[in-house]
Amino acid sequence: MTAAANAAVAPAPARGRGNRSLWALQARGAPYLFVGPFVALFLVFTLWPVARSLALSFYRSAGPRAGEFVGLLNYQFLVTDVQFHLAVLNTLLYTVLYLALFIPLSLGLAVLLNSRRVRFRNVFRFAFFSTHLVGQVFVAVMFYLLLAPRHGLVNRAIGTALPWVGSEIYWRADPRLAMPAMVLASLWINVGYGMIYFLAALQNVDRELYEAAQVDGAGRWARFAHVTLPGIRPVLVFVLLVGTIGALQLFELPYVFFDPPAGPGMRALTIVMYLYQQGFETGNIGYAAAIGWVLVLFIFGISMAQLKVSGATEDL
Amino acid sequence: MSDAGSNRVRGTLMHLVVHAALVALALVALTPFFWLICTSFKRQEDVFTSAFLPWDNLGALTVDNYRRLLVETPFARWLVNSLFLASAQTVFVVTLSSLGGFALAKYRFAGKRPLMLLMLGTLVLPYAVLLPSSWELMYHFGWLDSYLAILVPGMVSVFGMFLFRQSMLTVPDELLHAGRVDGCSEVRLWWEIALPIVRPMVGAFTLLSFLGNWSSLLWPQLVLQDESKFTLPIGLSNMIGLPQFETNYGVLMAGTLLSVVPVIVLFFVLQRDFIAGLASGAVKG
Predict the structure, then answer these.
(1) Residue B72's Cα: distance from chain center in Å?
(2) With contact defined as beta carbons under 8 Å apart, do A295 and B125 qualify?
């Protein structure tokens, strides 16, 4: 208020001619100054590596200096590389399992928390979200113990609740349990995070639509299917996309959890882990780059398919 | 009358069921934290005999795990390294992204459209595809085993640029105009008018950046070689593989707990801003 009053009394500080043109210069130059540092770094550390990585994928290399142009050979080799196929299958299995549980759980949680007259909503919201604050590496260390056979808390709980299963569950040694263990840990990390998005979306759905639907005699499920789902569709598509893209890049969780990182029977070998091994343990960064570009194709293809199926292309 | 009564009973029942479900799920989320704290104070032999605490022998609780962690491993060093790297990188990336986002939202300048298209094109690229070429670049810069390899590339966040552009669009032009009339420089418009308005986004992005950097393993592990430069994720994940700690659950859990606490503290500092910022990004984005 006082600032405005001052301005009315003494509009625009007096300046000389030279100062005024300097002033105009800072106004015109400002946007370039603001984006300049970002653009410079973006060119060097994002765009150049993108182009260079595409080029690298046509080279066979051992270490950073050696390199031999091999055309499409890396990609041809990927087509017949059994280990790569396994990595793709493992990653897809994880992605499907994870999303099939993640979306309903986080949406369900949001619906529960959004119901009227829920008390301590903020406390619950924080409780569910807090698990997201533990980074993947630390979660992997925690689950290394939580899932330890016999003594691990999860196995103790299973042994108590389902005595016929028992607590001798070898999550780290049984090939069939490798990906389920990863799904379990990922859900613990991410369900609360997804819930935050859904909760925000639910609170934006028009209350009157529910009342209108109720007047029309729509039951609980009908209201969910015909009012809630269409109302939150953009956020649903967003969470699904981000979830898929993240899941396809699974790396740190299995890398820390399993020893060797590929897990029992290589059932925890993921695409990014295979890229890492080929590029930085075997030393063929050209082959690693090719794996990276195939992953890009997967991500593009699957995202496009999801957008198409959900009919979200009209919204974008 | 009885109809309304049974409705009320049903409502109360529903109310109870919802709360019971929420409490049960919250327990699933929170129990591992409680267990983590308990385990970090237990002797090795008690880890196997009790799930949480050895209730009949609470005198057996010990801080020995923490002592071993700090004396027998360079954990304290890694903690300091991680605190430095994550804080510095967060300050840089939040500053650059909010400045850039401000320019994208509120100015017209040459090359804006092509820039935004290029940024959009890289938005969904998986970071893994950049690993081979970025590593090669660090090699040629001579930045391997240097924090420059983490801090400088870490200043770029296309995601952050878009988040800030999106929220800076809500800053009213009239306010900026009034600022200019009052003789504010453009930098002061950003600092004193725009940033306070998008404060929730600053909070949300600060936490997400810090969390991302704090827990990242892949890139730091690729570029750092000297153990004294390691970050917590590298150090802790290596400890699992060491014979003297592999089965020493107490020490591992003490390390995990100390690694989680700083992020939780930051969350409490930023929490009001954080939830609002995250939600606004989702609903508009």
Answers:
(1) 28
(2) no
Structure-block tokens of residue A12: 């625009």
Q: Which of B209, B196, B194, B206 is nearest to B271 (CA)?
A: B206
Q: Tokens for A310?
A: 């959900």
Gap from B157 CA to chain A (nearest CA, Å): 8
Whole-model pTM over 0.95? no
| Rounded-to-integer distance, Cα A113 and Cα A278, Å | 45
**What ipTM does this complex have?**
0.89
- From the list A30, A188, A303, the residue facing B107 with the nearest CB is A30
Number of H helices, E strands in chain B: 16, 0
Scanning the structure block, which residue is given the tokens 């780059």? A289
> What span, in angstroms and rounded, lies between the C-alpha atoms of B228 and A1?
55
Which of B47, B133, B187, B231 is the mutation pick for testing A, counting most A CBs within 10 A?
B133
A119: distance to nearest CA of chain B, Å? 8
Does the CA dihedral B1-B3-B6-B12 come out positive or negative? negative
Question: 10-residue block means of pLDDT along chain A (316 residues)?
Answer: 39 57 84 95 96 93 74 94 97 97 96 85 89 94 90 89 88 94 96 92 86 85 88 90 94 94 95 96 92 96 87 55
Rounded CA separation A132/B264 (Å):
10
Among residues A263, A114, A69, A204, the alpha carbon closest in space to that of B283 is found at: A204
